[in-house]
Predict the 3D structure of the following.
Amino acid sequence: MESTKDKNAKTIEINEPSHPGDAAPADFETAIAATGYGRFNYILLLIAMPCCMTTVFETTTMSYVLPSAECDLNLSLADKGVLNAITYGGMISSAFLWGFLSDTYGRKRLLVVGFLLDSTFNVLCALSQNMVTIMVFKFMGGFVICGPFAVLMAYLSEFHSLQHRSRVMIVLGVFYSAANMLLPALAWIIIPQSWNLVIVNGFLEIHSWQIFLAVSCLPGVLSGTCVLFLPESPKFLMSKGQNEQALNVFRWLHAINTGGSQDFPIKELEDEVQQRPMARGNVESNSTGKQTTSKPGRSPSPSGLGEGFRQLAIMFRKPHLRNGCLVYGIQFGILLGLNTFRLWVPQLFTIIEEYEHEQQQLIGDAASSPMNQATLCEMLAYKVNKTEQMQHQWMDRDVSKVLLGPDPVGMEPLDEILNCTATTEGRVYLYSLIIGGIGVAAYAVTTLMINSIGNRNILVYGLLLAGFCGTALYWARSSLVTLLLSASYITICSIASTALVGSVVAMFPTSMRTMVVSLTMMFGRTGSIIGNVVFPYLMALGCLPPFIMIGASVLAVALISRLLPRTVRKPLQ
């Protein structure tokens, strides 16, 4: 029988962190660090670029389509709000499903299926001929893309060691910002073109904005195809007890990163399944390797479902309940303002261009003089009245067709009655491109200064500034002023939303961190839906209400953010 001293020595040896040269089984962090950082990591980041583009395109393409599709689909302002919000509805409805599927079937399979399915729904959306079918396919696209959107972060982090993991998350933020620049550039190239295709004997009519929707699915096809050739996450394989497959992945990564110049130093991995409480159950292993039943009176280790309910109960206790409610409310307010205004920016600039163009035709060059420039508020009121008039005309046309036939006698030609012209000026997309570029630059600066500023200061003072910029849009009198205020509002709110997620990571322990982040994003997307649906109705009520909404929501959560604990350089729980 082994002595107590020998047992203690063996226990210490097992609990010490493993190193590549140790004979003891290595944990995941040791194994992934031993693979090095090299060609595979660069390839992985290169593949991540179209993946980020796909998630951005899914939620944002409709905002560039709506100004051009207004006449083809007979859209009211309320219809545009619903089309902007419908993708977020799909994402909310599947938020928890994809987490379960990812933990059950693996990261790679979900990414491949998710990206390819999303591309399929985008193609079907591009072929749609009315608003209802577009809504259905955009909802399904949001339902599907929520999986890859959430799993991509986990998949990439599980191929990088602790030394490089944070840097990879920053790179992903840059990719998302770059995608927000690429999308308006792509829209600028395609949508203004006068492409109108009539196929299948007039059954399908394809316009340039539908071609834009079809082209926007290409990053999804590229992403799904590329991920198909990548390995499954070794962390997922270890969590399922498939250590031999995980070790093969580690060896493959090491060979690519080092050029196969040396053998992978780790020969055995820790059995994560046996280390879980639910795997041990009522059975314990002593130091000799024999299994003994747990002692009388000791409660059995909780099952997976029981552990889940236990962690859920902890979320409703101090201090997690208070911090959780603060975080959910703040993210709700930020994204209610940010995603509402961000998705309406192309439409707002279109309204400005349309107003200035029509006024110049009516009263000549005097309309462009500073003394005659209208406020953004007056331009919105003009657009609301014009849209309501066209809606009444479209309704009269449909009624006349039903009662009097397609060509009623004694009526003016329908083309003269319905004066609807889509505005596709290049400057509309240029403004969005500039806003995206400002966002990339601001993210780069914030990355360097985040430790000095702190997440809470960004939330408090940044959101106060953003709130004033959003409200000040009410008095904007030119495209340039509107552009500057819009860029400031969108950039600051976007950085604040990212800073809030960073605070969540530090505020909550590992056991509930994923759940809190998921709930935070769900509340934020709920705010996005409510904001986009309510915004056009506020525009119909008057000029001031929509700007009060986007400004007041951000100002309110800026004040609430002062209640958050400081998280700068706080170690993870």
